[in-house]
Each structure stands twice: as structure tokens, then as C-alpha cells.
Amino acid sequence: MENEDQPRLRSVVSYVKRGGRMTVGQQRAWDELWPEVGRTVGELPAGKLDFTEWFGREAPVLIEIGSGMGETTSQLAAAAPELNYVAVEVYDPGLGQLMLRAEKLGVENLRLLHGDAVILLTEHVEPDSLHGVRLFFPDPWPKKKHHKRRIVSPSFAALVASRLAPGGTFHLATDWENYAEQMLEVCSAEPALKNRYSDEPGGWAPRPEWRPVTKFEQRADVEGRVSHDLIFEKR
């Protein structure tokens, strides 16, 4: 049984609340675009978020956790107009840049949430409701003493699984080998999830052609690291 208070009491989170000066354009996005397309997790009313009302239409909801500077997120949302695409991020300039990119692409099916994805999923997302959850290149916390900060854990996998609709997908990607192995182990152990590519070598999913190459993948390639994708499905 979920402890509804647990996320707010967590002493260890998977992210660092980074500062960073915003550009003039990013600040304009916050001033002009955020009131329509963005909300802050900590300021949401108690209860479940009505995505249909927020988007002004009923459509499958997909949540991407950690949209970074928004280059791939804006493209993914633009390429899937049939989805109500939700990006969750803690970095203010990143959200500003994502709004600018989405504006340039004419994206209308994207909404932004500023804050902790665990609190969002726990307190504001209906069980069995999501079309998908994406977690692309989360902070790897490579030092062993920091592994406890990694977002992918048994409790997180169970939380994501509980929010997915039957058949919904949890798509993960990382360029850190031992984190990929941890993701595979944790998600494979979650009873509500099954690996769509369990018959493939290692259980890894083929890299989807539709996912743009991120700066993290480019850097990983230069540094000799291999990126791995995993796609799990709600039973």
C-alpha cells in the first residue's frame, strides 16, 4: 500500500536543484508562455490532475520525466500530435528553453510541470491512466556512494507501473552500463511489468529510430559508452 506522504518526506531525491541564469528568451517564455502551458507540482490542488481539462481534449497521456533543455522533448511531442504530452523537469532554464523550442515548432500538445515527478505520480496521477512514461538519460550518479540517489528503484518502478494503463509502456534509456543493468534488474523484478524485448540479447530494446540522438548519447559515443534502451509494458 502506498504511503501518500512518503514523497514529501524523502530525504534523498534523484536530482539536484540547480541554479542557472536564464537567457532573455527563456525569461520571455516563462513570462508569456508558462501561464498557459505550465504548472508547478508543489502548487497543484490536492487530488488528481485533470489532464483532459488542461489540454482541452481527451487523448492518451504520456509523461516524460527529465526533459532537460527540451531539444528531444519538443521534437517527440511534435511528432506525436495524437498524445497529450507532459514534460516534468526541475531546471528552470531547461523548461524555458523547451517552451521556446515548442513555440518554434508550433507544438500544441505539450504541457510542462515544474517539480518532483515522484510527488506528481503519487499525488496527482490516477492509477491505471497513463499511455506511457519515458525516462531518457536520467542523472546516472556514477559514484557508488551516490547510487542511492538514482531515480530507478523498486519503489519507483512499482509507482510507475501502478500509474500505467494496461498495455502502457515504461521506456528507459541510459548510456551508463551499470545503471542500465540496474534498470533492467529493477524493472524485471516488478510483477506488474514485462519486458517487451525479453527475447532479445540481454533483454535490451532496439534503439527506436524515432528517438532523436541526444547530446548525452553523442557525448557517450565520443567517450566510448554504449547507450541502452529498455521498454517495459504494464501487464
Automatic annotation (TrEMBL):
- Record's keyword annotation contains tRNA processing: yes
| Example GO molecular function | tRNA (guanine(46)-N7)-methyltransferase activity
Q: Which InterPro entries does the annotation name?
A: SAM-dependent_MTases_sf, tRNA_(Gua-N-7)_MeTrfase_Trmb, tRNA_methyltr_TrmB_bact
- Which key words are in the record? Methyltransferase, S-adenosyl-L-methionine, Transferase, tRNA processing
Its annotated pathway?
tRNA modification; N(7)-methylguanine-tRNA biosynthesis
What CDD domains is this protein classified in? AdoMet_MTases
Kindly list the GO CC terms recorded for this protein: tRNA methyltransferase complex
Task: Give the enzyme's EC designation.
Answer: 2.1.1.33
Key word RNA-binding present: no
Binding-site residues, substrate: K143, D175, T214, K215, F216, E217
Q: Which residues are S-adenosyl-L-methionine-binding?
A: E64, E89, D116, D139
User: Which reaction(s) does the protein catalyse, per the Swiss-Prot or TrEMBL entry?
Assistant: guanosine(46) in tRNA + S-adenosyl-L-methionine = N(7)-methylguanosine(46) in tRNA + S-adenosyl-L-homocysteine
Any Pfam family: Methyltransf_4
Role played: Catalyzes the formation of N(7)-methylguanine at position 46 (m7G46) in tRNA.
Belongs to which family? Belongs to the class I-like SAM-binding methyltransferase superfamily. TrmB family.
| HAMAP family tied to this protein | tRNA_methyltr_TrmB
NCBIfam families per record = tRNA (guanosine(46)-N7)-methyltransferase TrmB
Protein name, entry field? tRNA (guanine-N(7)-)-methyltransferase
Give the taxonomic lineage as stored in the record.
Answer: Bacteria, Bacillati, Actinomycetota, Actinomycetes, Pseudonocardiales
Q: Which gene encodes it?
A: trmB
